[in-house]
Amino acid sequence: MWLTALVSAFAVVGATATAVPDGYGANTTSMTPLLVATVPSSSSIFLLGSVACGEKHCLELRRSNAALTSYVTVTLPPVAPIKGLETGSIGTLMFASVNNGYIVEDVGLTTKLYVTNDGARSWHLEIVGPGDIVNRLTSTSTTLYAVTMKCDVSHVTCTDFRLARSSLTAQKWTSTPLPHGSSHLDGSVGVAAALGDEVWISELLAKGSILIVSHDRGRTFSTIATPPPASVSGCFLTPESTTVLWAECPTGMDVSFFYSNTSGKSWTPISADQFSGTGGGAFDPVSGDLAYLAIGLESYDLYRITDDAHHVTVAGRVNCSDVVSLTFTTRMDGLVNCLGIGGTSEHLIRTNDGGATWTRVPGY
Description:
It is a single chain. The protein is mainly beta. Among the domains are: 127-269, Neuraminidase; 278-364, Lipocalin, CATH 2.40.128. 0% of the residues lie in helices and 48% in strands.
């Protein structure tokens, strides 16, 4: 899935040393949701949002239960405000486990990696590599990966693309140069996708799109011979097993979606004709045989994708002018960060029947 641009002006405050209660509190304070981060193999959800703060608004981070009926307010690192961006300098919010979470802060031509190892009670800075720009993060149950690079002051030319890896604590990193990362890439590197010891990375080079794979947690790579789906910036890959991959591939104004059950050696397009001409949406693979896709203008059709991506059926309709994010925690339970019709503020809606019906989440 991807996040659309956030365009409202916002005042951001730094972290406070708020103590975390032992249990969740009732959901009584309204929040405008901005980023939603699920936690693998957990019923917890972390929500970054806007709350009233005197006469202005402030960023707040909450850890909520799956039903979003109660929460704990946790802390944020001292992120910087950026005029016109509600999330300030926060570029990435991700949790690999309930305790281990990560915020990548984009500040000018640099990035900072903030890490928590106690469930966002506290945050500290970690250095992946001297002078490295942290471009992408992904994780397995044991390993955190970061695609890094070094760029000139204009960010036009970037070199030394690497895959760095660490334990989930992110305190000690080792890195491997990507096969085509020793000189400027005429394109982009997609998000590293990882499962077990397997790592896949989609790249766009001057000669076209390629897909590289590692079978030893990124220590060595080889190029998959069959050309992967084309993309202008590298595809976002989601592995569900060592053989099953879903792909979300930006192609300019459009986005294409694909499925592979051959570890990326061959790909099945997901109803390319049906979704051609789209300029946005949200895609969420749930398992090796199920994914959801929300796509449309002013309101969104929600499609259920099954049977090795050969069957695409309408599951329901999402009445949002923009689906900021789409997250299914089970095959039937889903959550949408929704920009209201007519450009009203963001809010959360949820389904418990696979997208057939949606209700507003109280307080959000």
